[in-house]
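Fold this: Nudix hydrolase domain-containing protein
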Amino acid sequence: MFKYLYRLPSASVLFSTTKKLTTVCSNPSFSFSIKLCNLRKNKSNFGALFIPKDIQVRVVSLLNIRSMSKSVDSSSDMELVITENKNHELLTAAYDNYGGVTVEVKDPLDSEIFLSLHKASIKEWTQKGKKGVWIKLPIEHVNLVEAAVKEGFWYHHAEPTYLMLVYWIPETVNTLPLNATHRVGIGAFVMSDEGKVLVVQEKSGKLRGSGVWKYPTGVVDEGEDICTAAVREVKEETGVCISIDSEFVEVLAFRQSHKAFFEKSDLFFVCMMRPLSFDIEKQDHEIEAAQWMSFEEYAAQPFIQKSDMFKNIVEICLKKKGSGYYSGLSPVSTKSSFSNRESFLYLNKRDLNRTSNDNEP
């Protein structure tokens, strides 16, 4: 069991010994050991050992050494084992079903050792026909980023606690999946049976100070379902609490736009909600005002009338409010054939459940 591991690119190690060194092997791929025992202070001679490039130095015994370039302390026992990183030292990795390799660095690693392990690993993975390499670097291992980039890795994405880098092994077109390209947002259209709509005025954003009344909007959190996000956003629009309980009804429509936040595309789902309570208790952090407004007054606002998207939403809600002819998409719980996790399929339940007799005149 090796106590320390060093990789020295073509360097000389000075050591203290009373024995004469002899050449063990002229081939750079070699392995031998030097034992220094029972050294006496001031009675040791100095020698130099040349370490060929890409050779690793392992210190087997627990040493009292200030530096590899200084003499050994008088009472130390020392054994150096010098080996080439040829067959055994590889980066710990997991293989996926698409010819990819995932490496998650968990323990502290010197950048020089990382490079040595990386080169040996790439050779191994190339022989096995692997293609893409994913390296997950926690934020505490930032020292390896420069070394990885110089070896051909590039940034894929970053999260608060780690950076994901990727590398493509074969000399073919890179087919690695891109980073997430869309952000998902919701608009919660909460309308009572009497035709009242829950609307707010914001303290920030493009509509700040404009006097425009809008329905609550927000961003879907990671791992959150659209129907759950809509209920949450009614109560806390970007951290603002409005004490209105509501029930998700359906997705009325959705819009896709491009080059929005951080140059990403945007999916915005307009959701119909049913209120379960009506008392408003707003917080003042980001919401200027909140109230119930008649649907007709909301729709008559100049800002709404000038917007193609909002005018279409008004038309949809008029259909729902009047004849109820328009049917949106309601969530149905499903499970994927690839996992046992629950997800939601949004579909037109009314038409799905309609029988042939319903179409008869």
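The two ends are 85 Å apart (CA to CA). The longest strand covers residues 246-257.
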